[in-house]
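Quick one, tokens below. Sequence please?
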């Protein structure tokens, strides 16, 4: 069970890092792409959703990390 939780911690942390990078690139894209301002709200929404998903993945990773630490203490 410890190995499974450790793999989940690593997986969710990697998901969060990728989502954080994608959200950041979408956010930067809002300022770079000034030719089509009609696409900016969509890019802002996508950026916000990815950053929110990254925070959720970091939170889930911490939950599994705490379970792993509790299991090793017992």
């Amino acid at each position: 069970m410890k190995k499974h939780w450790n793999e989940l911690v690593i997986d969710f942390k990697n998901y969060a890092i990728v989502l954080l990078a994608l959200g950041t690139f979408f956010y930067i894209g809002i300022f770079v792409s000034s030719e089509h301002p009609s696409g900016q709200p969509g890019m802002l929404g996508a950026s916000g959703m990815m950053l929110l998903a990254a925070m959720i993945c970091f939170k889930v990773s911490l939950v599994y990390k705490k379970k792993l630490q509790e299991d090793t203490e017992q």
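The chain has a mean pLDDT of 89. Residues 40-73 form the longest helix (34 residues).
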